[in-house]
Amino acid sequence: MSYRVGIDIGGTFTDFALLKNDEVILFKNLSTPQDRSIGVMNGLAKLAEMEGLSSGDFLARCEAIVHGTTVADNTLIEMNGAVTGLLTTEGFRDEIAIRRGFKESIWDVRTPPPPEITPRRRRLTVPERILFDGSIYQELDEEAVRAACHRFAKQGVESVAISLLFSFVNPAHEKRVAEIVAEELPGVEISMSHEVLPRAPEYDRTSTTVVNAYVAPRVFSYLEKLVERLKDGGYANSLMVMQASGGVMTKEYIENAPIRVLASGPAGGVIGSAHVGSAKGYPNLLCIDMGGTSYDISLVLDGVAPAESRWNLHHRYVVGIPMVKVETLGAGGGSICHVHNGMLQVGPSSAGSEPGPICYGRGGTKPTITDALVMLGILSADAEFAGGSFSLSSKGVPEAFKEIGDELGASPEEVAFDSWRVVNATMSQGVRRITAGKGVDPNELVMLAYGGNGPVFAAIQAEDLGIRRVLVPKASPTFSALGTLVANPTIEEERSYIVPVDQIDEDRLKTLWQALEERARDYFTRGNFPAAQVTAKYQVNIRYPGQNWPLTFEVNLVEGAFDTSFLDGSIRDKALELFNARHMHEYGHIREGEMPEMTGVRLVSYVETPSPMAGSGFTAARSKPEAASQRRANLGKGFQDVSIYRGADLTPGCEIAAPAIIEESFTTIVVYPGWKAVMDDAGDYELSPA
Fold it and tell me: Where are the domains of the chain?
């Protein structure tokens, strides 16, 4: 027997999905913020125990451990990254601070700039200049580089970002600067922009490289620690890490640009959503993930979780790498309820897992949404929680809400209900904002809800948004972990090549693509992925002159090999035809008589690996199950008797009418008044208006 394990670390829980042949086993335990690798190893030990094995035997049988991590995100949120310095071309010292004049709130003069990763004293310049065509206009002043290193040493710099003008066309100067930095500052992490983001525009590349340098030591430290613990425990294969683009790859590949793991945890859930939605015949999804700390919103359109490499603003910093688009709100089960300026607010601060909500009984003193759900009877203080990890307790919860109620002139129950209303409105409004920005009508989508708390609010949010179908997968509590098992090992890289489409040099294209092929082949080989299993997508970036963003599209796909033999002299006409069709689809027009320009080439290569099966359809006859119990709960219509069902007792075809609560091992599904839930053949739930 061999295993594959998917892991996703959240702010409150660490989630596990164990793939055992076609069976998926779910588990979650509390995260360990002081050292998150401890929580991972604790969970793996528990999975081994569930399989009747020692930890060593279990890890030795694991074919793959795939890991989504929030280390990079947490570093940016907490601003506790490395002391970072920036070396750039003379005259461009303040580009990173000017931010193209961008402000998140352009009408608010009080909006402060984001915290500086590289304050001006740690932004140094060196005389050198490479032109747009790669020619050297001014040689690198190596003594200036050494002098800058001495200044960095005095400031205790731990990581250096190098971003020189047009290095993505000719990286010679950046490579030499890196050599000097390595000589003068041994042990310091080095990030070169031509490796992190080898394309224009300049600000995007510099910003991405600076963020990469800032998070790199923290990401490396965590991954090294985890790899060491896994190796000592008996795991013999490469640790696979989830990327923001939606693919996974070996730790060794991630080390080239650790920024690739930014937002990798939420990306796993979106990939899993696309997999399940397509299997069930629902290609257009609104994906919502409510965990203990945050609420993530994403869209799947035509069965695809699109990865965008444009101006991704992440924690107020521009990141130009491809990222599955996930919008995050500070609204989770651990979001703290409090009064601000005489008004009830929920979040964005969270109780996390240490100490956690009051009802966890771990020393928490501030009321949270989870505590409100206990007050409302939606969560039970009598039942096991998180798969039996512990039980909730109502001790101290009413008193905490009473403190807020005394300030607002309301009862504890009213405060708990209003907290439920506030967080629900916050989440629904976030969905409206994001779908409107994409030009998508929510009522044309199917909602797929996951995370420990997503199914608690899903149906009432769907009602607010005009959505008439909600999917809750059986694996929803650990869906991001499951998504890491669905994702394929993927390498996605690009190289810059700026030229009018009618002047494309096919020999130059072949040289660029073959260089990318060689890198991908090397990493796949080191990860024990045979080249015969590789699928390669050859893509180009093209725009009209003056446009900020190019359109990226595929010009050829090769299965089972890398092969550029399709370059037969027709690429100019083919690229122009595909670009016009794509531009018309995206923007509704093309510029007749104007020649577009290519800005770069991309190679996306991946290997398909075993993934969990996703069931579909309803063949079982409908049945009305008996409720396991009743309890008083407020589902938005005041306190009333609500039927309680245990998920373990339900079988395909079971239909449950509102008001009802379904208690699964790791989540709770609320069937609000006016709704019904049906279990399909795969054991997943579908909710719809009654």
Answer: 3-75+221-261, 81-215+263-485, 490-607, 629-689
